[in-house]
Amino acid sequence: MDGFDISIARSTLPQVAAERLRTLIIEGALAPGARLNERELSEQLGVSRTPLREAFRMLAADGLLVQLPNRGAQVVALSREDVRHAFEVMASLEGLAGELAAARVTDADLDDLKALQGDLERAHKRRDLPGYYRVNRAIHDRLNQIAGNPVLAQTYRTLNARLHALRFRSNLNGAKWDRAVAEHRSMLGALAARDGAALRDLLVRHLHAKLQAVLETMGQDKE
Amino acid sequence: MDGFDISIARSTLPQVAAERLRTLIIEGALAPGARLNERELSEQLGVSRTPLREAFRMLAADGLLVQLPNRGAQVVALSREDVRHAFEVMASLEGLAGELAAARVTDADLDDLKALQGDLERAHKRRDLPGYYRVNRAIHDRLNQIAGNPVLAQTYRTLNARLHALRFRSNLNGAKWDRAVAEHRSMLGALAARDGAALRDLLVRHLHAKLQAVLETMGQDKE
DNA sequence: ATCTTGCATTTTGTATACAACATGCCAAAG
DNA sequence: CTTTGGCATGTTGTATACAAAATGCAAGAT
């Protein structure tokens, strides 16, 4: 966290391609279950098949694609069970982040988080869902940063990225949204009190509520 | 868990290469920090550079290699901090596995685990360290299987694989080993009582003890 | 003597040709 | 009419050639 990174970000071609594909998947341009034709895609992206294949491998590692031998890559189609399992793990990790953060949080950190909580409530008040999600994410990132465990942050990020293939925005109806904001307030209180166990419980329950919301948006899909 | 998979395992060349490299890394033939020359390695393994590169990507995804742009791949060199962070996350995941398992365990499962516990104690009694580790791993796998969350199992496996690059076997002196076996007995008790919270605590502490042992074997290495 | 600068060599990155495999169709047999 | 075998076509897997980048060394300048 100390020192500055002045190196210019040199992204390799596979990385750029992977990022591009990731966006296409998250935005839904590439639907879950869709098969990705290498030649076709490589022409569209303007790269040859080799770097594209490396991009496939990266995305497969993140769980956004599955690769079948001799049958290429396709966008993952997560079942409700998959989502449930992923959330179960993410809740546990988020709880750990809370515990760690409670043990290490400084007053300066708390001030930052209080400011973010303010942003969150304002976004809520004006029903600005995109803004709400942005702040929400910022709070989460900050918490993870305070927790100070890069492996934890990385693991969480990977799991989360996988779920984004679903792109469940929307679906925060009034009651649920109000409750979520209130939960955030409780969480901030537990953190200020340095009560790791309480924060952990709150986070786990918070994630559980989120899971329910996501499952509802998924509706009665397959499996 | 129902039904049999009769499909013959068709491993692709990159998979085979990755598996081979994984073994070389774990066994220490490829030391941490070592740079992997593509041409050289591809000749030694008898594959061309393309599948080898895909193998690199897979291992990098598992965290066994790091890939630097235009500078190839090298075996990760984990710092003590890295190990600490990884164990922190693994302990949390293992705890979750315990909680879930306690909620779903059947009497038949318990019988299996009791048998394994017997194996463990026998291996301990005759100071059979490799055997002990094997049974230890079997118990862990069984627990994860009972927990019934593939995402959890997968995440744990990945983290664990990364640590194996260190190949810390050995280093279980008398006292620690005795204590580990006793802990296993307690864990089995908590599972039999379906006490998820207790099992969770035991597992987290168990992993914490393991971390200490690992850190000792790492000695006063760099960073 | 040390530091820079350019060149030679090595190594990685990308494109592409060719081989292996999968898939769908059609015809022929039951 | 259904099923099976073979073939044609398309798609992925692998090898290799070429391009771009990095590294090490040596010669010259300060």
Could you explain how this protein is built, in words?
Two copies of one chain form a homodimer. Chain A contains nine helices and three strands; from the N terminus they run αβααββαααααα. Chain A is elongated and about 55 Å long. Chain A has 223 residues and is mostly helical. Helix content of chain A is 70%, strand content 4%. In chain A, strands 1-3-2 form a three-stranded antiparallel β-sheet. Chain A has two domains: 13-75, Arc Repressor Mutant, subunit A, CATH 1.10.10.10; 80-218, Four Helix Bundle (Hemerythrin (Met), subunit A). The structure holds a DNA duplex (30 and 30 nucleotides).
What is the assembly state of the chains in this entry? Answer: homodimer
In total, the number of strands of chain A is 3
Helix content of chain A: 55-70%
Mean pLDDT over the full residue set of chain A: 88
Largest sheet descriptor of chain A: 3 strands, antiparallel
Instruction: Give the H and E element order of chain A.
Output: HEHHEEHHHHHH
Gyration radius of chain A (Cα, Å) is: 19 Å
First-last Cα distance of chain A: 44 Å
CATH top level of the largest domain in chain A is Mainly Alpha
Low-confidence stretches of chain A: 1-7
Number of domains of chain A: 2
In CATH terms, the superfamily of the largest domain in chain A is GntR ligand-binding domain-like
Task: Characterize the overall form of chain A.
Answer: elongated
Domain HTH gntR-type (chains A, B): 11-78
Pfam family, one (chains A, B): FCD
Protein name (chains A, B): GntR family transcriptional regulator
InterPro entries (chains A, B): GntR_C, TF_FadR/GntR_C, Tscrpt_reg_HTH_GntR, WH-like_DNA-bd_sf, WH_DNA-bd_sf
